[in-house]
Design a protein that fits this description.
By secondary structure, the chain is mostly helical. It has one domain. It is 81% helix and 0% strand. The protein has helices at residues 2-19, 21-40, 44-64, 72-77, 79-85, 90-117, 127-151, 158-166, 171-185, 191-220. The model has no long low-confidence stretch (mean pLDDT 87).
Length: 221
């Protein structure tokens, strides 16, 4: 547990203080949401109808921005080789790095979402559901993104290849996350969509670290 906590704290500190990834992700999320009313018009009725999709699509693309840096620095300086040779299973190292990525990039999106929802006239009744859906869905984005980052490690044009690989896998949380928010805005229950979002994250929790570790071993071979 000490080694696991050390990897988590190290990655979190690097993401927050050195690379600027956390600030970049949050800034992109804010700008993307704020610019939407300029593109589709300021009509409150139009914005309210598409608010759920705006917020979730912006969060999804924001989560993509820092994925290519998840393993690349450790791959370049040899730290990834040390993690692969360490007594701690590589799957747990991947889990710790994914958790640090979510805390640094996904959690700020969750915290900023209620304020940004005001810019797109989201129904106030749907704001708790928006926060809950992002809280359940953004860990899935980090876990699945870690698999794509591991698969594309060392590839040319990694960022482009990673985006093409991971975007189709982000469709289920986008559909159910936006669906939950829209259902709440219409006065309907969001429970089924939220349960599916939670199930997706729970399924990715054991599977994504295993797949990422296998891809990392292949990249280091």
């Amino acid at each position: 547990m000490t080694a696991l906590r050390g990897i988590f704290c190290r990655d979190l500190a690097l993401t927050l203080h050195q690379g600027g990834d956390a600030g970049l992700v949050l800034a992109f999320f804010i700008l993307a949401v704020v610019l939407f009313p300029f593109g589709v018009g300021p009509e409150a009725e139009v914005l309210a109808r598409i608010a759920a999709g705006i917020l979730w699509v912006a969060a999804l693309f924001a989560a993509l921005l820092s994925l290519d840096r998840l393993y690349q620095p450790d791959y370049e300086d040899g730290g990834l080789d040390l993690l692969a040779l360490a007594p701690l299973p590589l799957e747990l190292c991947v889990l710790a790095k994914s958790a640090a990525h979510w805390v640094a990039t996904g959690l700020p999106l969750v915290l900023a979402s209620p304020v940004l929802a005001l810019f797109v006239d989201l129904d106030p009744r749907a704001m708790p559901t928006l926060v809950a859906s992002l809280l359940l869905g953004t860990p899935f984005l980090s876990l699945i993104g870690s698999v794509a980052a591991a698969l594309t490690l060392g590839a040319r044009r990694q960022g482009v290849l990673l985006s093409l690989l991971v975007l189709p896998l982000y469709v289920p949380p986008l559909v159910f996350g936006a669906g939950a928010v829209e259902a709440s805005a219409l006065g309907m229950t969001a429970r089924p969509d939220l349960l599916i979002l939670g199930a997706l994250t729970l399924a990715a929790l054991p599977l994504a670290p295993w797949a990422s570790a296998a891809a990392l071993r292949q990249a280091l071979a």
